[in-house]
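Exercise 7b. Backbone tokens:
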């Protein structure tokens, strides 16, 4: 539990590479604060245990634009992990397409359960979806990438589509 610092020191003992795949957005109204605390606790425990590398999955966005609290928090977590001084690879991903992905499960649930839906504006925001298989390959390959400083890799897919486009395509493929 990254919100309980004492649990991390033992969990990261005798480990050289760690993945930070934690996102608390749905946990409470103060998810940004929780994410900051969790990232700081994790970074401290990683430094204490002399971890060689942190691999973090964040959100794809333009830092120069007005971004949502969700994406702002993703950027902040990456900064906290990199500030630990540990070699950190930050992957910035958009919508992940594949079973188990929260975004994909949302698309599946909306499409299969709601024949008609009045949608919020975010349904029209363009994104660059990536296959869960491609994402997993990036995460796996990050273990052995050779470099001395922290890096950020934007790994959005080549196509720019909205959630609405994805919902319509999912519905088309599922008839």
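Sequence design result:
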């Amino acid at each position: 539990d990254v919100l309980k610092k004492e649990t991390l020191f033992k969990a990261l003992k005798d480990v050289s590479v760690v993945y930070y795949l934690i996102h608390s957005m749905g946990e409470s109204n103060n998810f940004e604060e929780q994410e900051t605390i969790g990232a700081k606790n994790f970074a401290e425990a990683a430094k204490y245990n002399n971890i060689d590398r942190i691999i973090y999955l964040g959100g794809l966005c333009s830092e120069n634009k007005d971004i949502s609290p969700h994406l702002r928090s993703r950027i902040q977590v990456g900064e906290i992990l990199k500030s630990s001084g540990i070699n950190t690879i930050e992957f910035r991903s958009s919508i992940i397409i594949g079973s188990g992905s929260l975004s994909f499960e949302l698309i599946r649930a909306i499409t299969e359960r709601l024949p008609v839906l009045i949608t919020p504006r975010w349904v029209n925001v363009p994104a660059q979806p990536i296959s869960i298989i491609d994402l997993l390959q990036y995460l796996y390959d990050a273990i052995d990438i050779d470099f001395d400083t922290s890096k950020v890799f934007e790994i959005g897919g080549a196509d720019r589509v909205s959630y609405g486009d994805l919902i319509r395509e999912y519905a088309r493929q599922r008839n």
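Instructor comment: The mean pLDDT is 90. The two ends are 41 Å apart (CA to CA).
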